[in-house]
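pls design
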């Protein structure tokens, strides 16, 4: 058994109480967990005013401190977003409880019965920034999957998160579950985040959500297991057979519908034989919506108002109304570009060629690969998870949008009747 090791002792009481709460949650019946979720949805709806008041304070401080437009958008809550959070919590309550699910089983030749079942991780740590929706999503997913969660939401959303965590704690306590199942360490600041990353023996898994810099810091400094959620340098390729109207609609939705999120389009690739046919309409629609086009020389020859792309543009996650655009000579060149610059998040091809579609699906190695669909669909709620832990771009345990199942591990149950090994 690992001996708990922390650089300081300030988080020890918090983490010990989270561990105790996780033991209670691991054996909590589904009906009780669902009651807690229903209570949480009710608490959110009844306390919209206090949530939004705290959020206005965070937004004012964020604007004063120079937060980018993308971060301010992620930080902002309104009545519709709070209602959507409550709806998502209720959706999670309706989902199948993964705890106890039989993954596989068999009977050995000596009649020992083997069963592999899903179990909670235990204590999950989450480090994120300027995303109060994550506070609710993670609390709800952790509760349903039988885990305790320790949250570090960052200073930008500290007022909003304080109110949200209190509401979560009140809700779950109202049905008899331990308040300590959901806790925030925001008052401990960056030192608390550092301790959380190093809390071996207390924290079973750590999940970072945020900028590439935050994720890199957690991955390189953590001493506990990390599920990496990646940044999104997301691509769409319009091949020679791409339908013009589909191209216009899908590219516009992927870039403009919410540009600050990780599944928004960042780089558009176009086959040279389709460029004159589809690009003007696609780029006109983007420009009308205020998007700045960063383009290579061949695109600028067709669309002179575009600005010249730099080498840096192809690897940039803008999180804003900017997009890089290049013309390529073939599907092979498009796939090679994606392999070089993609972060492994989401890529889509617009095509009427079944062979090209299958090649793209098979040869592009990203968490989500699409045909004739907006990249904005890479999302836990859209995939039917109710909400998401994050979008994993790694290849171990979890990949793509993570829901309840990804917050579980497994254990083997072995039932014998006196057998011994020869």
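designed seq:
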């Amino acid at each position: 058994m690992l001996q708990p090791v922390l650089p300081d002792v300030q988080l020890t009481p918090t983490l010990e109480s989270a561990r105790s709460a996780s033991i209670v949650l691991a054996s909590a019946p589904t009906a009780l967990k669902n009651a807690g979720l229903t209570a949480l949805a009710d608490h959110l709806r009844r306390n919209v005013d206090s949530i939004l008041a705290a959020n206005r304070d965070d937004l004012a401080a964020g604007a004063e401190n120079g937060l980018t437009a993308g971060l301010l958008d992620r930080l902002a809550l309104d009545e519709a977003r709070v209602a959507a959070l409550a709806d998502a919590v209720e959706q999670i309550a309706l989902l199948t409880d993964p705890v106890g699910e039989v993954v596989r089983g068999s009977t050995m030749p000596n009649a020992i019965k083997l069963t592999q079942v899903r179990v909670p991780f235990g204590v999950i740590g989450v480090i994120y920034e300027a995303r109060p929706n994550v506070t609710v999503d993670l609390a709800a997913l952790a509760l349903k999957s039988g885990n305790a969660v320790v949250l570090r939401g960052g200073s930008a959303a500290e007022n909003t998160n304080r109110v949200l965590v209190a509401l979560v704690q009140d809700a779950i306590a109202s049905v008899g579950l331990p308040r300590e199942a959901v806790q925030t360490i925001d008052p401990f600041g960056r030192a608390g985040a550092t301790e959380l990353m190093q809390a071996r023996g207390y924290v079973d898994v750590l999940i970072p959500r945020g900028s590439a810099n935050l994720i890199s810091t957690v991955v390189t400094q953590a001493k506990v297991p990390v599920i990496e959620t990646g940044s999104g340098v997301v691509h769409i390729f319009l091949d020679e057979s791409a339908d013009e109207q589909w191209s216009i609609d899908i590219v516009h939705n992927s870039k403009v519908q919410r540009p600050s999120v990780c599944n928004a389009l960042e780089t558009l690739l176009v086959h040279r034989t389709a460029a004159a046919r589809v690009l003007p309409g696609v780029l006109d629609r983007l420009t009308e919506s205020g998007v700045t086009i960063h383009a290579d020389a061949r695109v600028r020859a067709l669309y002179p108002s575009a600005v010249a792309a730099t080498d840096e543009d192809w690897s940039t996650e803008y999180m804003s109304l900017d997009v890089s655009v290049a013309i390529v000579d073939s599907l092979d060149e498009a796939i090679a570009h994606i392999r070089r610059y993609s972060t492994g998040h989401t890529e889509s091809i617009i095509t009427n060629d079944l062979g090209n579609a299958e090649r793209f699906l098979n040869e592009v190695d990203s968490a989500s690969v699409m045909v004739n669909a907006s990249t904005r669909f890479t999302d836990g709620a859209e995939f039917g998870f109710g909400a998401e832990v994050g979008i994993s771009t790694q290849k171990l345990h979890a990949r793509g949008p993570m829901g309840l199942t990804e917050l579980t591990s497994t254990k083997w149950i072995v039932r014998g009747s006196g057998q011994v090994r020869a």
